[in-house]
What we know:
The protein is α/β, with parallel strands linked by helices.
Amino acid sequence: MTTAVRAAMPWKHLVKPLGSQAGRRCFATGSSLQASYGFIGLGRMGYPMAKNLRAKIPESDTMVINDVNDSATQQFVNEVGNVTIAKTVREVAEQTENIITVLPEPQHVKAVYKQILEQNNLLTATPIKKERLFIDCSTIDPMTSEEVAAQAHNTGQGRFVDAPMSGGVVGAAAGKLTFMIGAEHDIVARVTEILSLMGKRVVHLGPPTSGLKGKLANNYLLALNNVATCEAMNMGVKWGLDPAKLADMINTATGKCWPSEVNNPVPGVVEGAPAGKDYEGGFGTALMLKDLKLALKAAEEAGVSPYLGEKAKEVYTAAAADEKCKGRDFSVVYRYLGGKE
Ligand code: NAD
């Protein structure tokens, strides 16, 4: 269905109280074919993801949303429609079989799943036809994820999958995210089908927590590559080299990496890169720091002591607090180092 046709739907702005939808499966013809989706966390990533999900699932499928920020859920209703707002996250889980969470930090994921799982058993509260599936797309530490997964699995209330993503806000809006998932083999197909509605690639890395471990290893490397690229470009320019020529050479030689080729930190070297827009947009320095800290914590838990990560953490911590760099793309480290712009 096109956006125009969807916009013309008379039910678009109708929000039914949750109670009125509860019995829907029981009386609708062919209701067993209907699926139900819960979405918790409609922030910068979650909102466009939920929008893509609602646009791609059949109109008869149910979608229930929740966010502590009421204006986000209300905006979703006004803009997208055909969803029910749940007052609590527990209500989302009671009413739906596929629940997606996109939350900021480990403590938020813990708190949300505590509310969902720790009251009366969900199964006795509201039996559903299909096994309940929890897909957590938040970037958190593997230990927290493992605890939550165990709580869901051991109490028989549902299957839990870690599915962190890459692609940023632009990828989320375009439905082109890459998901890295940690899941048992028997649910990979079901999870892939759902995530493919919001992304272009789903990579299964192994059992629960594998998705997060893969994501953190990747982002650890990205954090270091970025600092190294900023330093290399800074010294090259200070030595008098032309930044575009230097980057061109690096990108056909052994120093080539994503920060040098796609997200080069020197303004004007890569057209459209955040560096050329006063480092606006892109991947925020604070988010990079968050992922780096999570990777270092998980490394420590595995008995690994990375040398370079601690130093990079100092750089990002200082850049994230610097007035000239705050709130900007992580390639702003070049500016923090005093790079020529
Ligand atoms: P965000 O802060 O914009 O959104 C999080 C949303 O969760 C907010 O709307 C907030 O109100 C809601 N929330 C918080 N606590 C809640 C609770 N208890 N119950 C219900 N809702 C609650 O964050 P984001 O940028 O959308 O990122 C979400 C996750 O995705 C993070 O873990 C982040 O690291 C990861 N991620 C972000 C990006 C990015 O570019 N922004 C890219 C990849 C991965």
